[in-house]
Amino acid sequence: MTTAARLSPEHASHAAALQAALTQLDRVILGKGRQIRLAVACLLARGHLLIEDQPGVGKTTLAQALARTCGLHFRRVQFTADLLPADLTGVSIWDAQTSAFRFMEGPVFSELLLADEINRATPRTQGALLEAMEERQVSEGGVTRPLPEPFFVIATQNPAAFVGTSPLPEAQLDRFLMTVTLGYPDPRAERQLLETGGRSSTVRDLGAVLNAGTLLGMQAEVDAVHAAAPLLDYLQLLARATREHPALMGGLSPRGLLALLAAARAWAYLHGRAMVLPDDVQAVFPALAIHRLTRRDPSVNVEEVVSRVLADIPIP
Question: Which domains does the chain have, with CATH numbers?
């Protein structure tokens, strides 16, 4: 597995379009190349993304820039304590002209949904996203309505110490393929922001580099990225190490392991490979695992545990 297989020639146009999209995003979200690539890999793997950070570091800007660059229909919902599930999924109303109920779609019926400050809503409203994220459909009034394809949720979350936040339950966290943190910009990127007055106007002027049809084609190509038997052995060893680690109450579930494989395939595809390498697994493992692991003691640093697991498991 030392030689990276290259993607076949028929994927050349997709590869070029994907690189153009990344270049455009790099110009808007300054100094956050890794986080941008994790977000795009999450989209390519048909996952959902959770961004945990304090206000004002560019979480909403990243979601808007990604939607415009990918040519996706974008909706933003500000999660608050009084937000109801129907405000998100939609509601049936009586139409006097037709003497029948008519379903009014909620903002979840979009290709990219930004759930802003998701942990400020009640658990009931947070749970309204579960079916949409997992099944990609909404059930209301005995009718099941499919969501658009692609369907990608980016949720932002304030730190738990902030006033008015409700922690996401484990079942909700597990629906997010990855969690990333943007953090403060480096001094050079911060200086550029000061000199240009921010990136809000730049995001509004972004043109679409990709479109929904192209993304669906890319997602199908990601599914075809090869994972050899030794690579699958490596994934299982990582999962077992998290399950048996004394500092953790529980490790990666089988669903989490499948998510790790999907994320690694997307990372390999993002870097022009038709075969998953251990490097791809290591690149996505922290973003995929940290929010899925439960520590036994509040003093345990889960990030350090994940780093130690990666260091201890031999690479095939």
Answer: 11-212 (3.40.50.300), 225-316 (1.10.8.80)
* Interval 102-126 mean pLDDT: 89
117: which 2 tokens?
């400050």
Measuring CA to CA, which residue among 31, 71, 298, 8 is closest to residue 185? 31
The continuous run of DSSP H or E covering 145 comes out as strand 143-146
**Crossing angle, helix 278-289 and helix 33-44, to 10 degrees?**
90
Alpha helices in the chain (DSSP H): 12-28, 33-44, 59-70, 85-89, 123-135, 170-173, 187-196, 200-204, 212-223, 229-244, 254-270, 278-289, 302-312
Residue 9 CB neighbour total at 10 angstroms: 8
Rounded Cα distance, 218 and 72, in Å: 14
Rounded alpha-carbon distances, angstroms, from residue 277 to 4, 145, 250, 272, 274 = 7, 38, 26, 12, 10
49-100 per-position pLDDT tens digit: 999 877 777 888 899 999 999 999 999 999 988 999 889 999 888 888 887 8
Per-residue pLDDT tens for 276-298? Answer: 999 999 999 999 999 999 888 88
In this model, does residue 236 exceed pLDDT 90? yes
